[in-house]
Amino acid sequence: MSKTLVVVPACNEQSTIAHVVGQLLNLQHTGSIDGFVVVNDHSADLTVQRALEAGAPAVIDSPFPNNGKGEAVLTGLLWAKNAGADFVITLDADLIPGFTLAPRQISAMINPLEQNSALDMVVFPAMEATGKLSDGIETTYEKTPISISGQRALRLASLNFLFCPSCDGFMLSNSNPAKRFQSMASGYGLEFCLNTTLFSYLHLNGSETPILAQRAFRNCTGQASHDLREARASKKQRTRMFNNAMKQWGEWRKSENQPPPPKIAALFGPKR
Q1: In angstroms, how far is the first alpha carbon of the chain from the final one?
Q2: Cβ distance 196 to 103 under 8 Å?
């Protein structure tokens, strides 16, 4: 029987975290998931208090500096590894209050991984606060479509290179592959890093059971923005940052004499 755990990175999400925790408790009660953790990424508001009051069974602090969700998710993945997870779902902490996260949505992400052992990841898009369904796709500077949705299910065994045994379980590895991954995932590069690391993934369209999140009203630093013009300007800034990261990645790949596409061989570099 496979074990599915959910990782929720959260930074200054006091207005939505209780709703997310409530939804996950319901999913745990129905057996759709086996547990979850809220990873506090140095929140300056009442995120931790609201999560605990809502009944979160585990709230842990990210030991990394507050550089973005990448480090917080790595903290959650390590927690899941030590808890014996087979699959991990990463879920953004800004789901719109009042929306129900249904078991069928969890099944849509987990079933493909259970049925196809060659599949490493399933990506599920979110619907923005404006009501527009986001397909989770942005185009890179190379005109290559890349899935950037934060809602995704991972086969944890595909990321075993991130961990190494310790005296009381597992810890994050200090190997070159693991350090490269951590460096690329730092800040808001996690989704791109996962896409280039894992061999195969499935992108769902989510047209029947979308996940609702406040994506349209978040600025590029993750802070709430109620000014739609500011949100749109921040999205352009985020896209520029994303494309610049892709350009740097392409230059690194060329310097390492790695052929396209930038999959796991390129991430790890040539064998020494």
Answers
A1: 39
A2: no
What tens digit of pLDDT does each residue of 149-181 get? Answer: 788 999 999 999 999 998 889 999 988 888 888
List the domain boundaries for the chain. Answer: 4-268
Does the structural domain 4-268 have CATH classification 3.90.550? yes
CA separation for the pair 158, 83 (Å, rounded): 16
Is residue 48 scored above 90 in pLDDT?
yes
- The answer to whether 14 and 47 are in contact (CB under 8 A) is yes
Q: Is the pLDDT of residue 12 over 80?
A: yes
**H or E stretch covering 11:** none
The candidate with the shortest Cα–Cα distance to 91, out of 28, 141, 182, is: 28
Q: To 5 degrees, how large is the angle CA 106–CA 107–CA 111? A: 130
Specify the amino acid at residue 142: E
- List all residues 6 or more positions away from 117 whose beta carbon is below 8 Å from its beta carbon: none
The span from the CA of 133 to the CA of 182, in Å, is 30
State both tokens at 22.
């409530």
| Pair 18, 50: CB distance under 8 Å | yes
Q: Which residues contact 118 (CB under 8 A, 6 or more apart)?
A: 199, 200
How many Cβ atoms are within 10 Å of 195's Cβ, its own excluded?
Answer: 19
Nearest CA to 156 out of 54, 72, 83 is that of 83
pTM: 0.75
